[in-house]
Write a structure and sequence with these properties.
Blueprint: H1 18-25, E1 35-37, E2 41-43, H2 49-55, E3 65-67, H3 79-86, E4 93-97, H4 99-103, E5 115-119, E6 125-128, E7 131-137, E8 145-151, E9 156-160, H5 168-173, E10 181-185, H6 201-213, E11 222-226, H7 235-243, E12 247-248, E13 265-270, H8 276-283, E14 291-294, H9 303-315, E15 321-324, H10 329-333, E16 339-342, H11 344-354, H12 357-360, H13 364-379, E17 384-387, H14 400-418, E18 422-427, E19 430-433
Parallel strand pairs: 2-3, 3-4, 4-5, 9-10, 10-11, 11-12, 13-17, 13-18, 14-15, 14-16, 16-17
Antiparallel strand pairs: 1-2, 6-7, 7-8, 8-9, 18-19
């Protein structure tokens, strides 16, 4: 991120309001909003941007494409093209964007400079090396484009500044996009008496909600507020307000690494009613088809248990398949879609029942079952999330059978955790990542 600020930056250098004073005192200085993507694509290039790159330890020498959103001077400093010619760059450079923005650049390019101009209009798509770029309409006072960018690895971002509430055509065009990151204009903060060419905090929240409703934004999308101006409250208050939209800010110079590897095997543990199942379901919420393995044995004589199972089913998507069984190894081995395994404790209880361990005290067969489950867990060909329970925590069960169950579940949890890329502890609904 070479900049995250509005046209006058934040703080405004002529302003002494509470927000600007806080930013200046705390060294939170934001310049013109722009981004450098993989050191290859420069998204917007206001007059502050070339030197911002140097300040943050980046060179623009590898930039092969400049995507311009519009012609306003905080997004377009055409003198950068002259700077490039002075460095004797001979590699081809494409400058793309609205035609009026390109027209402002042409006089800054010499006849021998390897620079070409490609006008874009909303609805147009173009391939730039390993990227596919879709230009979309904005709500702004001059011709402005927003950019939906996908690389060959499937990483997908939406660059949406400067714009107010998005046109319906744009919202429809990105339905079900499941973006890895959304960079959304949030210029005016608490000031709502302005034109519609930018977002304030209330309209920002409404736009994020609309994009969540149509699948463009999911729980895994990194939602970032950009083009921030001094009508926003001081950063601590802004951070809290944005959190209600699961959004955030980053400072100028921040490096974002998108599409990090998703854990293949995740174990979620915690106490009773800690929110483990709900959290586990949220990890797979963006997957349309999931096999939900419910290991608890149905009990028609227990109305409370029946009600619990019904409430669990009701909150899961209708496209998920529920299988009630303790024979999970075969399902894991032959799976073709993600699996949610809920839970290890009831699975263990069912295996102990099957082998009549409560009466015999012989756990040999259960240990064999654990070995087989661990093998299936490790070799499962799809993403899998399992839920388990923490038992004991210093309390020694009064009965021999209780102590036997506690010990076996502790062993099972430790072995599954050791074979998992991600382990999460839920306490009072709050997740803590142990791995």
């Amino acid at each position: 991120m070479l900049g995250t600020g509005a046209a006058d930056g934040w703080p405004n250098p002529f302003c002494t309001c509470e927000s600007c004073s806080w930013a200046l005192k705390n060294g939170s200085v934001r310049g013109h909003t722009a981004a450098l993507l993989d050191n290859q694509i420069l998204v917007d290039c206001g007059p502050e941007v070339p030197r911002a790159a140097s300040r943050y330890g980046r060179t623009l020498a590898g930039v092969s494409h400049i995507l311009l959103t519009h012609s306003h001077p905080d997004h377009l400093g055409p003198m950068a093209l002259l700077f490039r010619s002075w460095a004797s760059r001979t590699e081809p450079l494409q400058v793309l964007g609205p035609a009026d923005a390109l027209d402002l650049c042409r006089d800054w390019v010499g006849p021998q400079d390897p620079v070409t101009f490609v006008p874009l209009v909303a609805g147009q798509s173009i391939t730039l090396d390993k990227y596919v770029v879709h230009a979309l309409a904005a709500t702004h006072e001059v011709p402005t484009l927003l950019y939906d960018i996908t690389d060959t690895d499937g990483t997908r971002i939406f660059w949406a500044t400067d714009t107010g509430p998005l046109p319906e055509t744009t919202i429809a065009a990105i339905a079900e996009a499941d973006f890895d990151a959304l960079f959304l204009d949030e210029t005016f903060g608490n000031k709502t008496d302005h034109d519609t060419g930018h977002h304030d905090l209330p309209s920002f929240a409404r736009t994020v909600t609309a994009l969540r409703d149509n699948g463009a934004v999911t729980d895994r999308t990194d939602v970032l507020a950009v083009h921030l101006g001094h009508h926003n409250p001081p950063l601590p208050e802004l951070t809290e307000t944005l959190s209600y939209s699961a959004a955030r800010t980053v400072p100028d110079g921040a490096v974002l690494r998108l599409r990090m590897p998703v854990p293949h095997r995740t174990l979620i543990t915690g106490g009773a009613r800690a929110g483990k199942s709900t959290y586990a379901e949220s990890l797979l919420a963006s997957d349309k088809h999931v096999t939900y393995i419910a290991t608890g044995d149905p009990d028609d004589d227990d109305p409370d248990w029946t009600d619990r199972m019904a409430s669990h089913r009701a909150r899961r998507p209708a496209t998920w398949t529920t299988v009630e069984t303790s024979g999970v190894c075969e399902i894991l081995s032959g799976a073709t879609e993600p699996i949610l395994f809920d839970c290890l404790g009831t699975w263990l209880t069912a295996r102990m029942n099957r082998h009549d361990v409560w009466a015999s005290g012989d756990t040999t067969a259960v240990h064999t079952d654990i070995d087989q489950l661990l093998k299936s867990w490790v070799t499962c060909p799809v993403r899998i999330v399992a839920v388990t329970n923490e038992v004991g925590s210093g309390v020694v069960p009064e009965t021999k059978s209780g102590r036997m169950f506690r010990d076996l579940l502790g062993i099972l949890n430790a072995r599954i955790a050791d074979a998992s890329e991600s382990v999460v502890l839920l306490t009072a609904g709050v997740p803590t990542r142990l791995r």
